[in-house]
Amino acid sequence: MSGFPDIVELNVGGVTYSASLATLTNQPESQLCAIFTGNEPIAKDSKGRYFLDRDGVLFRYILDYLRDGTLTLPECFRERDRLRREAERYNLPHLVDLIADTSRSKVPGCITVGYRGSFQFGKDGLADVKFRKLSKILVCGRVPLMRDVFGETLNESRDPDHGLAERYTSRFFLKHSFLEQAFDMLYEQGFKLIGSCGSGTAGSAAELKPGVDAEENRWNHYNEFVFVRE
């Protein structure tokens, strides 16, 4: 260990870190221990920092594990497979097991996604061109479950907690209007679509409000999708 300072400056895939030599070598069978005890070579960058050609963002979780022996991931973390590969590359089998445990511990539940939409029609001779148009994507279910799935994309402004986190609500919506993004987030968290329904809400021209396009109004509809994780 004599060839390395007590505080090691690292460049991991372009992201810089500082860690004690004791932290980096506290797992005797790991690749990091082999490197920082002089048993494997390591290069330096132009500023003299030790360079690891690995994922720099995910290395924070590797370093947290080396410091505490535990794994704490943020809500809506979607890089478990990549983090597992990093743990395997650094030869940290206990961390690999912890990552697998977080995947198995997902809470079962149900989330309903709904939206009211229409079609926006092309102009100037493009009347046959239609684009899906929706204003808000509504999400209904148990509050902690929706936070876990949608993370920072969840808008809770219409139904704040008031100290009751373990509750159900039908008043949350998403901060974006991309239906497929919502579906991807549910799929990545292990949810499956078990049912859907839709209905037309078209009105007559006499019911139009100022500024509402008659053709768009004719195609108004409401759809709901029910997702379950067992």
Chart the SSEs and their pairings:
Blueprint: E1 7-12, E2 15-20, H1 21-24, H2 31-35, E3 43-44, E4 50-52, H3 59-68, H4 80-89, H5 93-104, E5 109-121, E6 130-142, H6 143-150, E7 154-155, E8 168-174, H7 179-188, E9 192-200, H8 214-218, E10 221-229
Helix pairs in contact: 4-5
Supply database-style keywords:
230 residues, alpha+beta, four-stranded mixed β-sheet, 8 helices, 28% helix, elongated, T1-type_BTB, synapse, BTB/POZ_dom, BTB/POZ domain-containing protein KCTD12-like, membrane
Verbal overview:
This protein is α+β, with helices and mostly antiparallel strands and about 230 residues long. It contains 8 helices and 10 strands. The strands form 2 sheets. It has a 6-stranded antiparallel β-sheet. Strands 2-1-4-3 form a 4-stranded mixed β-sheet. The chain is elongated. The longest helix is centred in the middle third of the chain and has 12 residues, at about 95-105. The protein has helices at about 20-25, 30-35, 60-70, 80-90, 95-105, 145-150, 180-190, 215-220; strands spanning about 5-10, 15-20, 45, 50, 110-120, 130-140, 155, 170-175, 190-200, 220-230.
